[in-house]
Design goal:
two-stranded antiparallel sheet, two-stranded antiparallel ribbon, 27 helices
Length: 776
């Protein structure tokens, strides 16, 4: 029985083996009852006598298969794997599959859901152009009621990043019924503020603050700034008080930002003591400490607290040598020395500053070529070129939002009518201010790093050509799309090569199993052959014994028959010879003897006539035929199974040889796609490197001009101090208003003794404070 069972199993295995090489790519979704239904069909009474393939083939159910793919894409997005989701959805959108409409029965996710998830994947990957195209299809369709709220907020953010403030304001009314109203109002307020529509901006910021949530504090802060910008004469005092109140309730770095803005506003209004106090409230180790220290130095200087002002300026120049204001702070420290009547100290100090600036300018001019090229390549390779285009990170004017803003887990689940998956972590909507510390941290983690000879002050030099920023945005978007295309091509190629490797491993294992089963079957066949040989010999012995017994019994029966005939003849002869003298009892005895002879003759004739049939019905002979028949059937099954194993082994060997010979057609196609994607990526990188290099060279030119002007101011200050020191030793302290550092200012930002960034700070009506809201 074991032999038969093993042979049957091998027959089934041989049937399955050819399917391994052809059916791998034809898997279709299966309904839960399809296997039972197919099993019942195989075992039905009508087909019980028909030999069928034992392999169960699931029935195709494409709509449910698409539904399963869409749910997998949703889980990928929720799990922070938007690239995998985009890979699935891109396959569905570009393949000839049937995606049911929203009205199809028994289908939970349909074409509109596919487009929505596609838009979310594109949004999280930063594919702005593709996202807008996909999102507009849904916003303008009948599905707008389901997805319009989320998509409109995301479209608003996209429009704000592009500077299309009019569209932001126009779209803000479309999200009033969605939970993202606070974010929408904040973005709309920033757009109105950037367009200098301050009354509308203030109203919108107030609405965002009333909506509560993560952005309410920033909205109150912006509302105060809008109040000041709308009425600089009357609103300044109220704005300062509002900022003081907001700073008291603001957390962490945001409180520093509010205090810094209040200090700048107080400085504008001539409230120098208040400005110094507010700037001092900023954390000394935070990301806004540099700008706060610089503002405090100017506030103390204007408040005639010269020693404290000089200490602040010197501290700034020492701690932040990489910032553009470093030379301005050092010049102001020398200015304080002059005003304090310390002309003897001021002259060598100014000369030291001048020598330092001249050396820095010379080094910058010498490295303006190769250093800019290598820095541009490093920034682009690390995908960190955006650090150059932040909106004044030293003053914290860039608001960073997470990639998932507007599409958190709860919002996605609600839009799709699905509960939040178990174990899914909620996306944080916490906004962050991009500060100097963030930029420095990112610069320190570049791979490859910036060269040691690269002047890092160029990273923090702002106020360049707007066209350069626009060109960067366009080329960086092209590179982002190229990055996504390359990563998708790599993922698809990896999937194909992994599938090929898994297939080779599976077929190799199947090859081993077929070889082992074939070897075991050969052993069974050898044992069966030996048994059949033994049976043949036993059958010969049984036949010889049967012939011998048959001949013996047939001879005995013939002899008995002859003896009975002879006795009957002798009795007849004796009765004839003695007929007259026999007594009655003798006649009776002779009759009995004759009857006995007849009976013996009949018995011998019956035995002789039925001896062959008796041997044929003997159990030994019958069992011999049964064993022979079974052995022949087993031999036939073994031969059939051996043939199936040989055929399957040949199929497996052929498929393994094909797979091991090289890439399949699909892998070759994917390798070509990856090569094309990498070519496009290199082209996009080259274009972006050119744009970044041009920006760095332009900044280097501006920086050289600033350094030359500051060097001239330092040399003039040194000469002025030496002059006053030579005239009467102390008179220069009362006449320092004639120095270039005070009257003419410095190119780094001094205008008539007042720093340009404080005379017209980022929070004034001439410069939007919101910055960009691009995700980090």
């Amino acid at each position: 029985m074991l032999t038969i069972r093993s042979a049957t199993a091998l027959a089934v295995l041989a049937t399955v083996a050819p399917l391994v090489t052809t059916a791998a790519a034809q898997v279709t979704p299966v309904r839960g009852d399809s296997l039972r239904r197919d099993s019942a069909a195989v075992a039905s009474p009508a087909t019980a006598g028909v030999r069928r393939d034992s392999t169960l083939v699931p029935r195709a159910d494409q709509p449910r298969g698409v539904d399963a793919e869409l749910r997998a894409a949703l889980f990928d997005i929720i799990g922070g794997r938007p690239l995998q989701a985009l890979n699935r959805l891109d396959f569905l959108t570009t393949s000839p599959v049937i995606v049911a409409g929203s009205g199809a029965p028994n289908v939970l996710l349909a074409r509109e859901d596919m487009l929505f998830l596609l838009a979310q994947a594109q949004y999280r990957l930063g594919m702005a152009d593709a996202f807008r195209t996909t999102a507009q299809q849904l916003v303008s369709s009948s599905s707008a009621s389901r997805y319009g709220g989320i998509l409109r907020v995301q479209l608003m953010l996209d429009a704000y990043r592009r500077g299309d403030y009019q569209q932001v304001v126009a779209m803000s009314d479309g999200v009033s019924s969605w939970g993202g109203r606070g974010l929408a109002s904040l973005v709309a307020g920033l757009a109105s503020y950037s367009a200098k529509n301050y009354p509308t901006a203030r109203t919108t910021f107030d609405a965002a603050a009333q909506a509560g949530g993560e952005f309410s504090g920033y909205a109150r802060y912006m509302s105060a700034l809008a109040t000041v910008a709308a009425d600089t004469a009357k609103g300044a005092a109220a704005g300062i008080e509002a900022l003081r109140a907001a700073a008291g309730s603001a957390p962490g770095e945001f409180a520093d930002q509010v205090n810094l803005a209040a200090a700048q506003l107080a400085y504008q209004r001539g409230q120098f003591d208040a400005a110094g106090t507010l700037a001092g409230n900023v954390s000394a180790d935070g990301g806004l400490a540099a700008q706060a220290l610089f503002a405090r130095g100017w506030a103390l200087y204007k408040a005639n607290q010269l020693d404290a002002s000089a200490a602040a300026f010197r501290d700034f120049g020492t701690r932040y040598p990489h910032l553009p204001e470093r030379d301005e702070a050092r010049l102001m420290a020398g200015q304080v020395l002059l005003q304090s009547g310390r002309a003897g100290e001021a002259s060598p100090y100014f000369q030291q500053v001048a020598d330092s600036i001249v050396a820095e300018a010379g080094a910058l001019q010498a490295r303006a070529g190769s250093a800019m090229t290598e820095a541009a390549r490093s920034l682009v390779a690390a995908r960190a070129a955006g650090l150059l285009f932040l909106n004044d990170p030293a003053t914290g004017k860039t608001l960073a939002l997470p990639e998932a803003v507007g599409s958190d887990v709860a919002s996605l689940a609600a839009a799709l009518g699905s509960p939040v998956p178990a174990g899914a972590s909620a996306d944080s909507l916490r906004a962050e201010l991009v500060s100097l510390a963030d930029v420095e941290t990112r610069m320190g983690t570049l791979t490859p790093p910036l060269g040691a000879d690269f002047p890092r002050r160029l990273v923090f030099l702002t106020g360049g050509d707007p066209a350069s920023r626009a060109g960067y945005v366009q080329r960086s978007q092209a590179l982002r799309v190229a990055d996504v295309s390359t990563r998708m091509a790599q993922a698809r190629l990896q999937e194909a090569t992994d599938a090929q490797a898994a297939k080779i491993a599976l077929l190799s294992r199947l090859q081993v199993l077929l070889g082992e089963e074939g070897a075991r079957l050969n052993e069974v066949a050898a044992r069966l052959t030996a048994v059949r040989d033994s049976l043949t010999r036993l059958a010969g012995t049984v036949n010889a014994t049967r012939t011998r017994l048959r001949d013996l019994m047939r001879g005995q029966a013939e002899a008995t028959r002859l003896m009975a005939t002879e006795n009957a003849a002798r009795l007849d002869s004796l009765r004839g010879a003695l007929g007259g003298v026999l007594r009655p009892e003798d006649v009776t005895a002779l009759g009995s003897e004759r009857e006995t002879s007849v009976i013996y003759r009949q018995m011998s004739e019956a035995i002789a006539g039925n001896i062959d049939g008796a041997f044929a019905r003997h159990p030994v002979v019958l069992l011999q035929d049964s064993v022979r028949g079974r052995a022949e059937r087993i031999q036939g099954l073994i031969a059939e199974t051996q043939s199936a194993i040989a055929s399957s082994s040949q199929s497996v060997n052929d498929e393994l040889a094909r797979l091991r010979a090289g890439d399949t057609e699909r892998v070759r196609t994917l390798r070509a796609s990856l090569a094309a994607a990498e070519t496009g990526q290199r082209a996009a990188e080259t274009q972006l490197v050119a744009a970044v290099e041009a920006e760095l060279r332009a900044r280097a030119t501006r920086m050289l001009s600033v350094l030359r002007h500051d060097a001239e101011a330092a040399e003039f200050g040194s000469a002025t101090a030496a002059f006053f020191s030579a005239v009467d030793g102390v008179a220069g302290a009362t006449r320092t208003s004639g120095t270039g550092a005070s009257a003419g200012g410095t190119a780094a930002g001094t205008e008539g003794g007042v720093p340009a960034k404080l005379a017209a700070p980022a929070t004034s009506s001439t410069r939007p404070p919101g910055g960009t809201t691009s995700p980090r």
